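Sequence in, structure out.
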Amino acid sequence: MSTDPLASEPVSSPPSTPSEASRRSRRSRDRRGRGMRGPGVVPSDPRTPVLRGRRERFDDVVVDLVGDLERRWSDRLGLMEYAVEDTPQIPDDWDDDTVPLASLVRGGGGHPNRLVLFRRPIEHRAEGRDELEALVLTVLVEQVAELLGIDASEVDPRYRPD
């Protein structure tokens, strides 16, 4: 420790040995006991599965279910776009008790039909992966049935109304 003549507090000097410096840097990297951060957390082996987030898992469910519906109804659906958004943009004049789970915009004049699922409201209503899959299936089937003008039970045999 050295003393700065202009300051009343002692000023610490740089670490005297390399081992002291490495101990400080290790301690500051993991100072709250949470482990490594950054690129070292994800395994570099491509065969090792990487943890997927909620958004990716939700997208996987939607892609699987949309694939089933597309195979079954592609000839009648025509040009169709599917999308996932986190939350709907709710206008000011909507009732507070109503939160949409999806939005269907009919296409025309060369524009595709567009079906948007809202991830957060759907996830909020499901307690596990099975419930999530069932709810996504229900929302998709009801929207496709609306578009085609048929009963939802005709769209997919797995459909079970509430």
